[in-house]
Design a protein that fits this description.
With 123 residues, this protein is α+β, with helices and mostly antiparallel strands. Helices cover 19% and strands 27% of the residues. The protein has one helix at residues 100-122; strands at 12-15, 17-18, 40-44, 46-52, 64-69, 77-79, 83-88. The chain has a 5-stranded antiparallel sheet, with no helix packed on it. Strands 1-3 form a two-stranded antiparallel sheet. Keywords: Membrane, Transmembrane, Transmembrane helix.
Length: 123
């Protein structure tokens, strides 16, 4: 008698990549051309894309990291001191393109905010 164990994973499939190791991870995402594997991993509650616009630790400015998370999305996008985080939980691989049009707005807004603060501090 043979016993077969089948593992079932529930949850979202999310794109998992970083522009540090895979240039195809940049926007627009080119997952079908990616040279790294695996590109999609499963079992997550939400999918995230983080766009670093300031150097922090291992991640230089301009780095894009796509990953899965077991934390729920609090908002679809949030901007911190060094990065913008996009979060989704509505469909598999939803972190492949989210925030593409928003990211330009967020980047320009962040730069303008820094310039205004700089001007205020100079007086």
């Amino acid at each position: 008698m043979f016993t077969v164990m089948i593992s079932t994973i529930y949850g979202l499939n999310c794109i998992v990549c970083s522009t540090i190791t895979d240039i195809d991870c940049y926007d627009p995402y080119k997952g079908d051309l990616s040279k790294t594997s695996p590109v999609s991993q499963s079992g997550f509650t939400s999918c995230q894309k983080t766009m670093y616009w300031s150097n922090v630790g291992f991640f230089p400015s301009g780095t894009v990291v796509r990953e899965g998370s077991n934390a729920p999305c609090i908002s679809s996008s949030s901007t911190g001191a060094v990065a913008t985080l996009y979060c989704c939980s509505d469909k598999d691989n939803c972190n492949s393109a989210m925030g593409y049009s928003v990211s330009l707005f967020m980047t320009i807004s962040s730069i303008l905010s820094c310039l205004i603060i700089k001007q205020i501090l100079q007086y």
